[in-house]
Amino acid sequence: MRQINWSNIIGHKNKISQIRDMIKSQQFPNAVVFAGADGIGKRRIAEVAAAALLCENDNAPCGHCSSCKVFAAGTHPDYYYLEPDKTKANPVIKVDQIRSMQSEVILMPVISNRRIVIIDDAECMNNVAQNCLLKTIEEPQGLSKFILITSNLSRLLLTIRSRSMTINFESLTAEEIERALTAQNIDNASKIAIIANGSLGQAFKLAENDGLQIREDVIKFLETLSSLNIENIFVKGQALAALPKDYFISWTINFQKILRDILILSADVNIENEYFYNRDIKARLNKIKTNLAEAEIFKMLHESAEVQRRLRSNANLELLIESFFIRLKNSKSNDELGIMNLE
């Protein structure tokens, strides 16, 4: 059985204290938005808050009452969790899902004194779904409270934001992430923590998917970009296309972060800046910087954003990668392969 309690949450002490005080004083709003980057613990905090709001005792969630036991078992009749279908290329929360939830929450609670609804990835609601939800938030029926979780607050309608309390969660520190990884006996915890960009979820993905190796692959690509020929590009494209698509998605994300770090080095600003992702390989980035003009870096960032957009389609992965690499090669002012697009 899962352990649902505040002590298992990494970081966010001040925000958690604020949430617990609101629950204890019965001042928790009817609608709250938990906003912040992906993978920093928002969903876990929302889950514990839901258990606490449903708990029968003061030290909530107590873990011992009947409500806490069925919550931990995943069978609480007064708890409703809603999320988009993440198997889809473009996950969306549709109006039918909101209406189905509404038909449940207007009913009287079964074992607790209220019903709790969590809407995860709330930014995935289309406008029709958001407007449908808005009616419930504006005119709540029954004893219900809503927690909306989002990594993109701007995609929620202003009317929803104005009728909800927003709690903004900051990214975790590298030290907090390192401690969490070390507790799980994960190798290279300190390096992974640095490049995880404040996201524990991202850190675990890096550990599971050999994220350090992906970063190393990107670094070596940039270090040898000037010497790449068309044959090298085809070989590299075939090798990457043979791997799961998620690998290349992670590759492009690392590519962008490394280029942004190089721009920071070019601007000669404080490298302790929170947006400097790869402090541990500063010397190698400085060396790459000497071979890239600022205009070339911006063009490469543009090309990587475009290939990320195309990755959401059904384009042939191998051709997409090869075309991307050719455009990167051609973005070098003195390099022309003469083949602009293979898609």
What does this structure look like?
- The chain has two domains: 6-168, P-loop containing nucleotide triphosphate hydrolases (Rossmann fold); 209-331, Zinc Finger, Delta Prime, domain 3 (Up-down Bundle), CATH 1.20.272.
- The protein is built from 15 helices and five strands.
- It has helices at 13-24, 42-54, 66-72, 95-105, 127-138, 158-162, 174-183, 189-195, 200-208, 211-223, 230-241, 245-267, 282-289, 294-311, 317-331, and strands spanning 31-35, 79-82, 115-119, 144-150, 165-168.
- The longest helix has 23 residues, at 245-267.
- The protein is elongated, with a radius of gyration of 24 Å.
**Which percent bin holds the helix content?**
40-55%
Summed up, the helix count is 15
Major beta sheet, specifics? 5 strands, parallel
Strand order of the largest sheet: 2-3-4-1-5
Classify the fold: give the CATH topology of the largest domain: Rossmann fold
Strand proportion: 5-15%
Termini separation = 50 Å
The value of Rg in angstroms is 24 Å
